[in-house]
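User: Fold this; tokens only.

Assistant: Input:
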Amino acid sequence: MTTVMVDADCGLCTRLFSFVHPRLTDGDAVRFIGLDTEAARRELGERYDEVIAIDTLVVVEGDQLHLRSAAALRLAGLMRLPWRLLGVFGLVPTPIRDAMYRFVAQRRGWFGPAVVCPVDLRSPAT
């Protein structure tokens, strides 16, 4: 199962969830949880404090941990066409992709307050 962790108090993050969730190829195989939940702490284990410190989108697949732009690309890869084609941005070197990711992340307040999601990202997920 793939786990996607987002900041449940972030307007951009909750809007991202609301956009991505209905476009997933297999929504049952993807679990969304808030970064500040006990479920996220259990899932990330010793890496939790490191991930919280950089405050980023996280995608966990088995033993693989995707952060920043790599997480966004992996999330795009889980979506139906045409959104899956966003994976072409994987050709852009990681430092450039991550710089673009940080630029948007630093301005995420522009997207307004968090919106209500179809699932409660703050509740403890199993």
